Amino acid sequence: MGQDIDDLPKNAANFTALTLLWFLDRAALVHPNKTSLLHGSLRYTWRDTYNRCRRLASSLSKHSIGLSSTK
């Protein structure tokens, strides 16, 4: 009987950790003009969402807001 897919060794060809950042990058690349958010009359594309998130992250970083190094 063949090997179960979950038992295969992980490598770049069959495994990538899914993170929110990876998802956002990928969605903006693959579906830049698809709708990502609807709220009333507001409509954002994945490109819009990606750019807004990048601007927010940059602004937070400029104000020294980021990951905590406390243990």
Automatic annotation (TrEMBL):
Keywords tagged on the record: ATP-binding, Ligase, Nucleotide-binding
Gene Ontology MF terms: ATP binding; ligase activity
PANTHER family listed in its UniProt record: ACETATE_BUTYRATE--COA LIGASE AAE7, PEROXISOMAL, ACYL-ACTIVATING ENZYME
Family: Belongs to the ATP-dependent AMP-binding enzyme family.
Entry protein name: Uncharacterized protein
Organism per entry: Quercus lobata (Valley oak)
